[in-house]
Structures are given as C-alpha cells and as structure tokens.
C-alpha cells in the first residue's frame, strides 16, 4: 500500500498509487506522490512518467475521514499543501506525465489528471469535482483544462461527473479503451515518447509549459483560499456533517 515506482522499460518510469479500497489519499500520500514523481523526473534516464493506480478507481480525492478525525485546522492545511505539491510535481515534471484513469477520478484526482500531459482512460471512467457537496472548493483550475469554461462551471456547481467518452470528444482524453487494455494502451503511448531523444523531450516539456496561458500554481492556490475561509467560518463542518448523516441514513435503508 502507498506509492510505488519502477522502470517498465528503457526511458519509462511507472508510478503506481495504491490506497485500497478507493484511493482516498491521506495527507502523507499526496506528499509521497509529489516526491516520487520529482525523483522520476530527476533521473536523466527517464523520458516519460506513467501515473497509474490500483483498486476500484483512479482517485477518490482527499481522505476526508483523516481530516475529520483530527481537531483544529492543521490536518486541512496539511492536506491542501500535499495536494498543491502533488499537482505541481505532475505539471513541473521535466518529462511528460501520462495519467492512466480507471473507474472514478474525483477531487484531487482531477488535479493530477488536469496537470498531466496525456490522459488515457478506461471506458468505465468518470471524472468530477464533488467539492461543493463537501463544503470545499478547489481543482476548478484543473477541470478547466479538461473541458470548456461553461461546462466546467456547470459541472462544478452541480458536483456532476463527466464520462471518459465525453472528455475524448473534447480532446482532453487521448484514448478510451476497455479496462483490461488500459495499461497496455498507456505503455504503447509511453514507448512512443520514450523512443524520442530525451534531450528533445525535456526541452519540449519546458517549452509547452512556458507557453501555457494559465498559471496553474497561482490559480489553484487562489481557490484554496476560499476552502480555508469556508472552514474557518464553520460552513464546511456543517455541510460535511449533513453529508455524513445522509450517508448513514442511506446505509441504514439498504
């Protein structure tokens, strides 16, 4: 359990996220993702990083239970710092990062995928930000890199999800394949990139980040400020409590 890194073949580093059963990532896990991707990027032999996950879905976001179990706001601050570092590590990685998504990609998962260079998804994959339903904000910066502006707003306000097929239509998901073929499809793209001259690939990554019209670090940090405000005002606690009550009621009815 945790974050694992291995070399699949020449030039390809695979980073696997494994926090069963749903990959709700604890605070330390976000920092581990950041550290592992940065280590991979510093390895001059690496030409592409494949970011994948085990378990039912790619990412269920922050481990809310961990935050709620600790008094005060320090756990929230730590989780937000961890997310910021993980998202930044993907974006700033000196080589392309391929995000490989199965099942669900929620909350912080959108931050990872939105900052990746290439996204490959299984045909059962869905993407969304449930933040509004949890009394939080964040990662609209990254969702806006996956869908047009007005759709992003509708998805954010309603906490709705969008399918891999829909994202493929917008061009933000490169390929949609059956889950059983997901890793093979990702490796095929990774091998294509890894076959290039590593010096050119690293220069290309710097160039593409340099011409990006959005400062993802600044805009995400701005969003985080409103999450802190909602928590300080007690609004987030009220909403999470209602959510927990509704969840308990649904379980009791089953």
Automatic annotation (TrEMBL):
Ranges that cross the membrane: none
Presence of the UniProt keyword Transmembrane in the record: no
Stored InterPro entries: ClpP/crotonase-like_dom_sf, Enoyl-CoA_hydra/iso
Entries under PANTHER family matching the protein: (7AS)-7A-METHYL-1,5-DIOXO-2,3,5,6,7,7A-HEXAHYDRO-1H-INDENE-CARBOXYL-COA HYDROLASE, ENOYL-COA HYDRATASE-RELATED
Keywords (A to Z) from UniProt: Lipid metabolism, Lyase
Highest taxon, organism lineage: Bacteria
Record protein name field: Enoyl-CoA hydratase family protein
Organism: Nocardia suismassiliense
Family: Belongs to the enoyl-CoA hydratase/isomerase family.
Pfam families in the cross-refs: ECH_1
Record has Lipid metabolism as a keyword: yes
